[in-house]
Amino acid sequence: MTDPNRPFSDDERRGLYRAIHERRDVRSQFLPDPVPADVLARLLRAAHHAPSVGFMQPWDFLVIDSVEVRARVLAIFDAENDKAAHNYQGDRQQTYRSLKLQGILESPLNLCITCDRSRGGAHVLGRNSIVETDLFSTCLAVQNLWLAARAEGIGVGWVSILDQHQLAKTLGLPENVYPLAYLCLGYVSEFLDQPELQAKGWRSRLPLNGLVHGNLWGQVLEDESLLAELKQ
Known about the structure:
Blueprint: H1 10-22, H2 37-48, E1 59-64, H3 67-85, H4 90-98, E2 109-116, H5 133-151, E3 154-158, H6 164-171, E4 177-187, H7 196-199, H8 224-230
Antiparallel strand pairs: 1-2, 2-4, 3-4
Helix pairs in contact: 1-5, 2-5, 3-6
């Protein structure tokens, strides 16, 4: 076991920031190559080492390689995606319909990360005031897995256009278990230079310096050196 107090080397720091900045939501670039068991185990272990409020660890992981199960999930996506398209009109709707928003069958593996909302009992340390902290904690597990996957050369795509009740029924989830993230995993032909939605003109990344406030909402940062750094 490594010393947890050992400083990160320059290479280790660069690797961490590289994974953060080069992480992508992958939909179109999946290869059929299987994800080796040892690699998948490392990803799941990284997810399981996420922080959680009260150390409740509310997550479970459904590893889905069944084509039949994935086809049923795809049918849920198709219905919800058609509904979503009607939120837009004209050229915007046409652009929406042209977007590839899932890789359920193209990826060799799907993974559903769930949140057991009863785990830890009725009174979880730190959860009295904000009951959603179980959901927040599970999101941290998703992020851990996503960054580890990028470091392993594995693409991840989050399929969010799903009816969660139908998804839970399809996956046979207990009533107290919420399907928080349905993910597509696999090796990819490439990682795009920028997020796909940005590349296709759907949205652009917001400038960070406009999102950082000083002390109170809307108040300008007084630290000019930090503000200058944020503008870079």
